[in-house]
Write a structure and sequence with these properties.
alpha+beta; binds zinc ion; 8 strands; elongated; 3 domains
Length: 265
């Protein structure tokens, strides 16, 4: 749809008729938004309805403030009640401090009939992991029992039995960093420390060790003249075809296989 020149002309003519001429334009006068009077704005309008509106707004603000104060007081009362209840139940806060050079996994259970009935006393619940030299605050009861194992052991437990929440000590045969009965626990810091633990070798290292040992033994067979034996010769030919991936002297050391380094001694 296009405007015809005739229509455009009409519109233009109307505009001109309604618009005041430049000479007649006056400065815009600010008027109060409530009473339309000049000389003040709606925030300080002296009209009765504006005064009443401001009074109501102040009353509402005051009401809200009072309610806020009441809420704060209620929260404080509840916190105090909870603290008292905790004290009566023998609940207190302690800090777990992991002094080991490895991450530990923290489990707990409650030594009470309800826990035993529902889950059994061999079942612990996962709480959290604490990094090497890390600390963590925890609330305990006198009947809380804490069970701590290395994080790597937790991961292999999960791989083996699944489920990252519940932990069955009867199935577990890895290293136990410690079992702590809070009932007999005096201080507010639990020092987690266990020197005997040596983290298991990564699977890749285990395979390297296995492969390097096997290759070494096959090489010994060759050295002992297996290639000259008609029955063993075809097998020894195939041994030649085994490619040994890149590895270091340290790898051989770890595998317990004689290397250049050990040959020197
Ligand atoms: Zn006004």
């Amino acid at each position: 749809m296009t405007d015809t020149p005739a229509e455009l002309n009409v519109t233009r003519a109307d505009d001109i008729a309604l618009r005041p001429s430049d000479g007649a334009r006056t400065r815009r006068v600010r008027r109060c938004g409530i009473c339309r009077q000049v000389g003040h704005d709606r925030r300080c309008c002296p009209s009765p309805e504006a005064v009443e509106e401001r009074r109501q707004r102040r009353a509402l603000q005051e009401q809200r403030h009072q309610r806020y104060l009441q809420d704060q007081a209620e929260i404080a009362r509840q916190q105090e009640a909870e603290r008292q209840r905790d004290q009566e139940n023998g609940c207190r806060s302690i800090r777990l401090q992991n002094h080991n050079n490895y991450t530990v996994a923290v489990y707990y259970r409650m030594d009470r009939p309800g826990w035993e009935r529902r889950r059994g006393n061999n079942i612990y619940k996962s709480f959290r992991s604490i990094d090497s030299n890390g600390t963590y605050g925890i609330k305990v009861y006198s009947n809380t029992i804490i069970y701590i194992i290395p994080e790597v052991e937790r991961l292999s437990y999960i791989r083996r039995y699944g489920g990252s929440v519940w932990f069955n000590v009867d199935l577990y045969n890895g290293h136990v960093v410690g079992e702590y009965v809070m009932d007999t626990f005096e201080t507010n810091t639990l020092d987690i420390i266990s020197h005997e633990y040596e983290a298991p070798k990564p699977v890749l290292d285990q395979w390297k060790e296995c492969a390097l040992k096997s290759i070494y033994l096959l090489q010994q067979l060759e050295r002992l003249g297996a290639t000259n034996n008609d029955n063993l010769e075809p097998i020894m030919d195939m041994v030649q075809d085994i490619t040994i991936p890149e590895h270091t002297y340290q790898d051989k050391e770890i595998a317990g296989v004689p290397s250049v380094m050990t040959n020197l001694t």
